[in-house]
Design goal:
transcription (chains A, B); about 65% helix; WH_DNA-bd_sf (chains A, B); three-stranded antiparallel sheet; mainly alpha; Arc Repressor Mutant, subunit A; HTH_MarR-typ (chains A, B); 8 helices; homodimer; DNA-binding
DNA sequence: AACGCATATTTCACCAGTGAACGAAGTATG
DNA sequence: CATACTTCGTTCACTGGTGAAATATGCGTT
């Protein structure tokens, strides 16, 4: 695949030319959106690459991590959908896959018989504990040359943008 | 779907708890990656939402934009693959779709008969000129409250991260 | 000029994610 | 207490994207 910086300079030139043709275009904002999209998906691809050897995809990994991070190691499909930003359909498949591998269990909830209780198994915990640490070095390397202030600033700006996006959301028409 | 800031605080808590259990985890870096991924894909979703009424998906839109921004309005599948970060397989389908709608044409290249020359049509240009401007307001709104320095800084940090990602890339094993 | 090798695009089979519809369980209303 | 409405999870059919092989052209060597 092509280097990220190549795509970025292509994008820069393209938007530069567009700016001259299309008056009124918010060029800087468009640039930032493209950057966000490119870097964001590249980060995800990088993650998926590290997950492939474990035969996990991104959504399964995220689901497993949420369960792992829970003090009681359990949740429900609906909640997992919400926090992984996945549709219920997909969560069903994810839960199927993880159950099949013995990393989680699915059982009926006592309080509300509509709900399903999903719980990480001891094997699931061991799996996470084993696969996670090898990822740390590359994760750190990604931010090589970033000062503490840089990281803080990046976090601040991304959260600010996220707030704007939430506020913006309603656009069904 | 669930608000972005909800997912973010979930993620913050989750990584917070993880940091206590998993010693040596680069928590801040992990947080930034998750943020990048979430905000990036949210931006893409926002774009796709705006494209849906025009019956375009993200890749088709990007392809069309590249062609539009070219002085001569033309390119080749290979080049488009490179700059859209799409596989050749997909580019074939994209070109099929855009050709069918009369927005581009496909013809043999004169210099290298292996190559295919893709060119935006006048109808394609009109289409872009019509669909683009209505997107500007929301695009600007996304960065409401961002100072010029904020935008500059966000751009700088994303580009820096992109460079690191390129440098990092080789990890096939 | 004929052979093998490299490159560009397409075709095919498959995978992950999505929207619509369904059945089961709960909740509210007359 | 019966009927309608809601919520939760699953199933199914479809879309967008990917990897491996097929096809076609060009390039370099002998």
């Amino acid at each position: 695949m092509s280097r990220l910086s190549t795509c970025i300079s292509m994008m820069d030139e393209g938007i530069g030319r567009m700016g001259q043709i299309m008056p009124g275009m918010p060029g800087e904002e468009a640039r930032l959106c493209r950057l966000l999209a490119m870097v964001g998906s590249h980060v995800l691809e990088e993650l998926e690459r590290k997950l492939k050897p474990h035969k996990l995809n991104h959504s399964e990994f995220l689901t497993l991590m949420i369960l792992y991070s829970r003090p009681d190691g359990s949740s429900t499909p609906g909640e997992l959908c919400e926090f992984t930003s996945q549709g219920a359909t997909n969560m069903t498949r994810i839960a199927n896959a993880l159950t099949q591998r013995g990393l989680i269990t699915r059982g009926a909830s006592r309080e509300d018989r509509r709900r399903v209780q999903i719980r990480i198994t001891p094997a699931g915990r061991r799996f996470v504990q084993k696969m996670l640490p090898p990822m740390f070095p590359r994760l750190s390397a990604m931010y090589e040359g970033f000062t503490a202030a840089d990281k803080r600033e990046l976090g601040r700006l991304l959260r600010k943008l996220a707030d704007n996006l939430d506020r913006l959301e309603p656009l069904p028409p």
